Model the fold of this input.
Amino acid sequence: MLTVDQSIEAFLDAHKDARLESYKELLRIPSISTLPEHRPDIERAAQWIVDELSRIGIEHARTFDTAGGHPLVYGDWLHAEGSPTILVYCHYDVQPVDPIELWETAPFDPFVKDGRMVGRGSADDKGQLHMHLKAAEAMLATRGTLPVNLKFLFEGEEEHSSVGLEDWLRANAELLAADAIVISDTGFFEGNVPALTTSLRGMMYAQIDVSGPPVDLHSGGFGGAVQNPANALARIITELKSASGSVLVPGFYDDVVPPTKEERFEISCLPFDEGDFHRQTGVPELVAGEPGFSLLECMGVRPTLDVNGIWGGFTGEGSKTIIPAHAHAKVSCRLVPDQDGEKIFEQLRDFVAQVAPRGVKVEVQNLGTAKSLRMDANLPVSKAAAKALEATFGKAPVAIRSGGSIPVAAMFDEVLGLPITMLGFTNPDDNAHAPNETMVLLNYETGLRTITRLWDDLGRMSPLEARMGGTTA
Amino acid sequence: MLTVDQSIEAFLDAHKDARLESYKELLRIPSISTLPEHRPDIERAAQWIVDELSRIGIEHARTFDTAGGHPLVYGDWLHAEGSPTILVYCHYDVQPVDPIELWETAPFDPFVKDGRMVGRGSADDKGQLHMHLKAAEAMLATRGTLPVNLKFLFEGEEEHSSVGLEDWLRANAELLAADAIVISDTGFFEGNVPALTTSLRGMMYAQIDVSGPPVDLHSGGFGGAVQNPANALARIITELKSASGSVLVPGFYDDVVPPTKEERFEISCLPFDEGDFHRQTGVPELVAGEPGFSLLECMGVRPTLDVNGIWGGFTGEGSKTIIPAHAHAKVSCRLVPDQDGEKIFEQLRDFVAQVAPRGVKVEVQNLGTAKSLRMDANLPVSKAAAKALEATFGKAPVAIRSGGSIPVAAMFDEVLGLPITMLGFTNPDDNAHAPNETMVLLNYETGLRTITRLWDDLGRMSPLEARMGGTTA
Done:
């Protein structure tokens, strides 16, 4: 199938081995943004990308400091006069690796196995960032020019709640002026079916801290006279949801836009193999999060509340008879339009205070929020992306409402007001955020052809057409 | 106050500095029985005691292996013909030190501060074991003889649920043949008031393991479709108790012997300063474990259920958006007469299975049980102990129903059927099982005089009188 420019195809073919080596080189840098001890690795990864952008001919490559402390990488190529300007976003930071004991190999020692690149960040999101670098390299190397103006923005704290990003975007909106935005941090549908993401869930991430005595107490000497912080925490968590899964925080569902009949029909038509999905999760039984909604609805158009971590007291081998001094839980909500993370945090904080048992001190910290977002699949840019996917993968993409959250998408929407296309290439079984993360190399290789094809198609569009649907159009 | 033999008093006076040095030497050995990496320290502590027993003139000093893997130390002196034989029990293993960051000094680098010995095990129970060694040494050194026959049994896994003890006791009942038992592993009442413990709570220690997916799942991609093991664990724990603190496990209270009106009156007469006790705990508010019972009743004559530790998922700094693969809790119950730990475990296990949410696998492990025990304060041996305490501390001891559990006491009762006296010298604010454990040196110094006084008094008793109240009498 001849889907992209022949000279680009020849270049990509010729440089396949070097490309995979370069991909591995990037994956070897353990750029975990949530762990302070990896700060030097974050800086090393940022510099690696700056060097690579410069090497392939992207201009003004540099880092910017943000209030979050993890540098943003920026670079541009703006010589396609009269053509649209596209802002490309990916992130180079990765999730922590724990539980490390479940990795079959070292997370930052990537290798190819069964047609996949294995390693932390191979899919989320260094792999996709690397595809953009290599697509631009191929076009510049073979033609000396690009069909569109490109501005690259690569974040270093996406997995750390993008703490410094929004302020930076507001302060640098002029630098980022463009006609449309392409974000590559999503993926295909179950079964590796090409897809375009048309909505993203938002997020509210909180920590509940329950404290009782200043030190652990002997449960024999004090059991029966003091409130146990771990029991109290369990009760607080339990109060947050009904047994059937509905969130009981007052006001939680107030701003949820219910899916329309048409949307529910579309979701029901997706090629979802529940048996396959069940096997992929490995759980004893799938459990829809809310009564009255299908699994896909619960994952895409309904909000959730999950404990992401819980700890307190004695957790070693054997037994220790104490009343723990304190207990903690990380609790996050996936939010849907039009829930507001800050408002949800306040509702949670107030409700926790209300249901907290007496005899302990309870605090709730806001660890970050992200807005949810809906995108119009009928905008010219989105249609071009769909066409490029179909041309390269041989299959029209399905529209998916993602359960994930990409804070930058909502921030771009609010700060820049441009049309956004979520062009992602990972496979749902890639183990993003989990041990043994992978990227299907067929998606990686075909996908970078999709990108060159999309730049060529957008290059034939006027800036005004590319900008259609954005609030600043 | 001349309370003990003058030559013994002179010996104790003359050797005070050396005694404290020896006490510290024993405390320096980190004999933590629940952590396998401290096995060599356990062995070192056992050998230290064997050597010390031999040095002071106790015979047949040796260790015995148990199925639990932590050696028992035994030694005897049996030349007081016609006098009672007393079996003395203490334990030389100690609790783990976590949370280590709350210790003001190194736990195994003991030192004297404000009239207290500071260090792990100073009170529970190496300090009291050391008092027995030094009391026997003083008597043998000054008189060349003891007024009673003594058999010392020092356990190495009391803090590890005494896993191997009961089998060993049954197999070695003949070796332990005696007329009465003195256990030194308890303490004084609040305010450092001399006391004799007349009942001990039993124990059931379990671990609840909840597992869902084999690996952590991305909460964006899967949240809403799978049961969250941490949320499920919180729900299970919450179901175990009512909001007001009653245990909801069916059958839990069936065998509880309610305190009589007389017992409740006696408890209400104890010199309990609730304000002092509250300050000692450091909690925001004291909370009686069950409606309708006083704090002291909830701590002494009513059973409890506490989470001792809880863990699962991401517990690092920052945020990680996962559904944890598994979550765990250590849960223990303090039991009162006539609750049976094994029966309570089965009730708990069955109830957990009943209330476990669907979509997760739940297992409950039995980590150990201990029987509760009541002791008669009117037996000759107990009366002698009370007299020795009054003679040395200048105050008649109060009778306390301890909230703690000493598995060996119930085992002795069942296997040997001898009268038991709980002669303990710690102060309730000694931080047993917590950071910054201490022993009041006045209690230590006066207490070893109490012990010599008790041996002298028991030496004037016939074996039959000492044995009164035991089922084998």
Chain A touches chain B through 102 residues (CB under 8 Å). Chain A has two domains: 6-200+372-466, 202-256+303-370. The longest strand of chain A covers residues 202-211. Chain A has a mean pLDDT of 94.
